[in-house]
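Below is how a single chain appears once it has passed through the pipeline. First comes the sequence as given, then the structure the pipeline wrote out for it. We keep one example in the README because the format questions we get most often are answered faster by looking than by reading.
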Amino acid sequence: MSSQEFSYLQDTLRSMAQDMLDYAKSCGASACETDISEGFGQSVTVRRGEVETIEYNRDKGVGVTAYLGQRRGYASTSDFSRAALHATVDAALSIARFTAPDEAAGLPEAELLARSDMPLDLYHPWALPVEDAIDVARRCEAAAFAVSPLVKNTEGASVSAQQAHFISANSLGFMGGYASSRHYLSCSVIAGKGNAMQRDDWYSSHRRAADLAEAEVVGEYAARRALSRLGARKIATCEVPVLFEAPLAAALIGNFVYAVSGGSLYRKSSFLLDSLGTQVFSPQVHISERPHLPRALASSPFDDDGVATHDREVVEAGVLKGYFLSTYSARKLGMQTTGNAGGSHNLIVRPGKRDLVGLAALMGRGLLVTELLGQGVNYVTGDYSRGASGYWVENGEIRHPVQEITIAGNLKEMLRGIVAVGNDVLVRGSKQVGSILVERMTIAGA
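Resulting structure:
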């Protein structure tokens, strides 16, 4: 079998899964669930025109959770032989026997499970010979160097082609799975000379290679971003509006998702406890979850529990309409799962009418942030403090790049203080959002 094919057919994975479920039942398990997966891919990195790394990966694994009432045990293996699979079930059952009962443990309610296939066009294998991958990476990096003599170095251009397939099944009769692909092209550029060096990067990632940005476009844009940061300086400490560029706006939405996800809520480690039905964003913000978009990076017909996914409105006019719950976290909260075991599915923040230039004009005077550093988010209190760099804006226009500053605020106030969302929508993983303008934050500078 060629390196561009899976070693196991979907039907083979299904047979393995069913055999494990049957064996678990024969051993006395009250319930059982299993996930079987296989994936492979290739990644190439070129730096200064020379091949720096070539990596091939081929992985497979099985995980099984066995239940004895409300006692749960989990075990895994990478050995697909029947004896190893049965031994893994035995191990999970052994662990369950020594585990304390958990009233939230167990499979989802049967009526919530996905029962039919839903083709979402997620699998587009990229038969990319290593020589061609090297050529793509070289063209990407060469385009960066061609922009200006001030582009002195790079951290490399990388190309990655990955594909995988899996089967999930449980003893309530659910069995589902599919193949998927994810391909990636990136470039990281260093510009300037002496001590006045700056770096920036850009990447493109899609299910289908044909949807990736051209190699030359990625390299050139990464270079222009690095060059635009030359001459960066500190600014005086102040309180001003802050405009988060689209990639960072996606991270801001990620902060919100974490705070209203089941684990944070039942552990009471979130600044948005008991916020369902309340105003958590400004009225301009609308967020939808669309799990069934063809070829999207976070599409899936079911979550990691096998629960069917559905379109829903998460935020309407700033009001929180739904949490992100798995079967387990929902039970801990006395609620019903939202089909989000494993994370969110294609969160779409409704765009406004302005692009990034228009948002800067609306802001007038303030900070456009294009890079964040550190992990300064306290999810219990909502306090937010991150190292940052970007551009100072006066009279709606960029005046100069900024570095070595810290932006600070409180997430609860930041979300409610969103003035506008841009139409410069960018897809970053499960988030689709334009740039976000926040009314006011503290900038700690010189």
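The chain has nine helices and 19 strands.

See the next section for the split statistics.
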